[in-house]
Design a protein that fits this description.
- The protein has nine helices and two strands.
- The protein has about 260 residues and is mainly alpha-helical.
- A hairpin with an 8-residue loop joins strand 1 (about 85-90) and strand 2.
- Helix 4 packs antiparallel against helix 6 (about 145-175) and helix 4 (about 115-135) runs antiparallel to helix 8 (about 205-230).
């Protein structure tokens, strides 16, 4: 649309008539703009509503898709109301899991209650360790070799906490602590009273030689006792303690033999 604009051509040099001229003020107030769209832009609040509607529509589509995809998988069967919660037990290879009662689940666990062999081992090993501490206590003042003093120190540092652990196990499992305390001859590797007397009277190199002889034998007896309970006992904690005794005291035997 032309707004009274006169374009001069050749032979026609007339200027715009006064009536054809747009008022200067009106031209400034209403400048010509390119035409883009017939639709008016949405106010801000309308834009927000449109965005919200689009978001809600997208969420609805996602929810519908989730429902459709989830419909292909059967929901787990709920536990019966009014009863204890069921336990989901894994099936064998190729078999599905199954629900079992807590009582049935408990019955499937291995029975690790301590038996007589477990109690005897712990009770006797406490006594066995105490004699080792009696022997190591003599080394600082009577040993002549720094190596003997050092190995005695290491033995004491290891066996004192082990006594505490074994006594704690006896307390937790209801077993007496002093059973077998006077039955030294039943424990392999135990030194006799006469041998302990000789050790207490010895000094220097004589002490070193007798100490190593008695302590190596003492350690070998502990390893024998630990190996026996591994075959006869039933409690996992006792098994762990016995394995520790075998590993540690075997290493100490090798160290003492090298002195």
């Amino acid at each position: 649309m032309f707004l009274g604009v006169h374009i001069p051509t050749e032979g026609n040099t007339d200027v715009l008539r006064e009536s054809d001229r747009l008022p200067e003020k009106n031209c400034q107030e209403r400048p010509l703009k390119p035409h883009i769209s017939q639709e008016a832009p949405l106010p801000n609040r309308h834009r927000r509503r449109a965005a919200l509607a689009a978001t809600l529509s997208a969420l609805a589509v996602l929810a519908l898709g989730a429902c459709e995809s989830g419909s292909d998988h059967a929901a787990p069967e709920p536990a019966p109301t009014g009863t204890a919660a069921a336990v989901l037990a894994p099936g064998r290879p190729g078999e599905p899991a199954r629900r079992i009662s807590p009582e049935e689940a408990a019955s499937l666990l291995p029975d690790e209650r301590p038996n007589g062999a477990d109690f005897r081992y712990v009770q006797m090993m406490v006594v066995h360790h105490r004699q080792a501490l009696t022997m190591t206590a003599l080394a600082p003042s009577r040993a002549g070799s720094p190596g003997v003093k050092k190995v005695a120190e290491r033995i004491a540092a290891a066996q004192q906490p082990e006594i505490g652990a074994m006594e704690g196990w006896l307390t937790a499992n209801g077993g007496p602590r002093d059973q077998g305390a006077h039955d030294h001859h039943a424990m392999p590797g135990m030194a006799t009273e006469a041998q302990l007397g000789r050790l207490k009277a010895a000094e220097g190199a004589a002490f070193d030689e007798l100490f190593l002889e008695l302590m190596v034998r003492h350690h070998e007896g502990a390893v024998t006792m630990a190996a026996e309970v591994l075959g006869q006992g039933n409690n996992i904690q006792v098994e762990e303690m016995a394995n520790d005794v075998i590993a540690q005291q075997t290493a100490e035997i090798n160290r003492m033999r090298s002195l």
